[in-house]
Amino acid sequence: MSESDLFTAQRPTAQVFSGLSDDEMEMLSQADRFAKAELYPLSQRMDDEEWWPPSILPKIGANGYCGITAPESLGGAGLDLFTSGLVLQAFARWNHALALSWVAHENLCLHNVLRNASEEQKARYVPGMCRGELLGALGLTEPGAGSDALGAMRTTAVRDGDHYVLNGTKVYITNGPVADVLLVYAKTDKDLGSRGISAFLVDKEAPGFRVAQKLVKMGFRGSQTGELVFDNCRVPVANRIGEENTGVKVVMSGLDLERSMIAPLCLGIAERALELSIEYARTRRQFGQPISSFQMIQDKIATMYVGVESMRLFTYQTLRAVSALHDGDAGRGEIHKLTAASVMFAANTMNTVLDEAVQIHGGAGYIWESEINRLYRSIKLLEIGAGTTEVRKLIIAGELLRS
Ligand SMILES: Cc1cc2nc3c(=O)[nH]c(=O)nc-3n(C[C@H](O)[C@H](O)[C@H](O)COP(=O)(O)OP(=O)(O)OC[C@H]3O[C@@H](n4cnc5c(N)ncnc54)[C@H](O)[C@@H]3O)c2cc1C
Fold it and tell me: What is the pLDDT of residues 307-349, one digit of tens each?
C-alpha cells in the first residue's frame, strides 16, 4: 500500500463520526475509488491544457454518477441531495475541475430541471443527462449582472408565436463552451423587475445561440467556462420552465441548493490537501529529520485537520437540512441563511487549509505542475462563485436582522 493509499484508507474513521449511514459510507467510498481510478489520471492534462475530456461524462453516467437525485424511471439513481454531495466530495478529492463541471451539470442544471420542469420536459431531457450524453449548464450571470444578477439582468425573451426570441449575453458559464443544454434566465417583462424573469431550456443547436469565447482561468482549468451570446435566439415556448415570470423562484431556491453543494467541493479539495501535506511532511527531510518532527509543521497539520473536520460537520449538517426540504421551501428564511453560512465557512476554511498546505510543501508547492499548487489555485473561485463571500454575508446578516 502506498503512502497515499494508506491515508485514503484512514478517511472512513472521520466519516463515521460525522454520522454517515452504512449506505452513505459505501457511496462515498465507491465514488472515491471511481474518481481515483478514472478522474485523477485526467487532472494534470486538464490543468496544463485547459482540456475537456469528451468521453468522460458518458463514462460517469454509465457508472451511475449522473442523475443521483433523478427518479429511477428517468434513468437516475433515485437518491437524495445529501448523497449527491458525497459524490461531489469524492470527485473533488481527485479532480476538482471535473467535480465543478459535474456539479454544474448535476445540480445547477439537472436538479433544477427535476424540481421545476414539466413531466414532458423531464422526459425529453433527464434520461440523456443521466446517461451523461447531454451535458448541462446554467446561465444566470451577465457582463453587467453578477452579484445583482436579478436586478441588473439585460437578457430578454420576447414571445413570437410558439417561440420566444432571446437576446443578450451570459458570462462565466461553467460548461458553457461544451454544453448540450442550458438552463437560461431571461426577462420576459422588464416592467416587473426581478419578478419579470422566466427560465428556459436552450439547446446548443438553437438558432441564434453561440459560444462567443472560452475563458482562460487561473484554477479549475479543465472545467470549461464561457461567454455565451443569444442573438435573436429562437426557443420553443415548450422549453419555458414553469409559467411566464416565475423564474425568480427557480433562481432563488436553486441558488440555496447550489451553495449547499459548493461546500462539499471545498471539503474534498481540503481533504486531499491535508492528505498530501501529511505525506510530504513525513517524507521531506531537513536538518537530518523529517519536517513532520518540527512542532511548527505539526501546528499547521493540526490546524488543517481542525479546519477539515469543522467543514465536514457544517457541510453535512447543511446538506441534510437541504435534502429534507420540500420543493419551494428554499430561497428564504433559515435555509437561505444556513446555506450561505455553510459555503462561506467552507470556502474561508479551505483557504486557510490550502495556505498551510503550500507552506508545508515549501518551494515544491510554488511550482505550477505540483498537485498542491493546482489545488491552491482553486481557492478563489469558491469565494466568488454561487454568490461572493460579501453576498453570503449580506444574506446571513439580512436574515438575522429581519424584523
Ligand atoms: C469560474 C467561474 C464559474 C462560474 N460559473 C457560473 C455558472 O455556471 N453560471 C452562472 O450563472 N454564473 C457563473 N459564475 C458567475 C459567478 O456566480 C459570479 O462571478 C459571481 O456571482 C460574482 O459576480 P461578478 O463576478 O460579476 O462580481 P461583482 O458582482 O461585480 O462583484 C465584484 C465585487 O464587488 C462585491 N460586491 C458586489 N455587490 C456588493 C454589495 N452589495 N456589498 C458588498 N460587496 C459587493 C463582490 O462581492 C465582489 O467582491 C461563475 C464565475 C466564475 C469565475
Answer: 999 999 999 999 999 999 877 677 788 899 999 999 999 999 9
Whether 258 is catalytic is yes
Residues with CB under 6 Å of ligand 1 are 104, 108, 138-141, 146-147, 172-174, 217, 225, 381, 384-388, 390-391, 394
pLDDT per position as a tens digit, 286-312: 999 999 999 999 999 999 999 999 999
pTM above the 0.85 mark?
yes
Res 329: pLDDT: 76
What pLDDT score does 390 carry?
Answer: 98
> CATH for 248-401?
1.20.140.10
Among 106, 258, 271, 356, the active-site one is 258
Assign domain 137-245 one CATH number from 2.60.40.10, 2.40.128.20, 2.40.110.10, 3.30.428.10: 2.40.110.10
Query: Over the stretch 40-78, which tens digit does the pLDDT of each residue have?
Result: 999 999 999 999 999 999 999 999 999 999 999 999 999
Is residue 139 over pLDDT 60?
yes
CA of 146 to the centre of ligand 1 (A): 5
Question: How far is ligand 1, taken at its centre, from the CA of residue 345, in Å?
Answer: 18
Atom of ligand 1 nearest to the CA of 104: 8
Query: In the chain, what are the domain boundaries?
Result: 11-134, 137-245, 248-401
Query: For the domain with range 11-134, which CATH number is right: 1.10.540.10, 1.50.10.20, 2.40.40.10, 3.40.50.1220?
Result: 1.10.540.10
Three-class HEC string of the chain: CCHHHHHHHHHHHHHHHCCCCHHHHHHHHHHHHHHHHHHHHHHHHHHHHCCCCCCHHHHHHHCCCCCCCCCHHHCCCCCCHHHHHHHHHHHHHHCHHHHHHHHHHHHHHHHHHHHHCCHHHHHHHHHHHHCCCCCEEEECCECCECCCCCCCCCCEEEEECCEEEEEEEEEEEECHHHCCEEEEEEECCHHHHHHHEEEEEEECCCCCEEEEEECCCCCCCCCCEEEEEEEEEEEEHHHEECCCCCHHHHHHHHHHHHHHHHHHHHHHHHHHHHHHHHHHHHHCEECCEEHHHCHHHHHHHHHHHHHHHHHHHHHHHHHHHHHCCCCCCCCCHHHHHHHHHHHHHHHHHHHHHHHHHHHHHCHHHHCCCCHHHHHHCCHHHHCCCCCCHHHHHHHHHHHHHCC
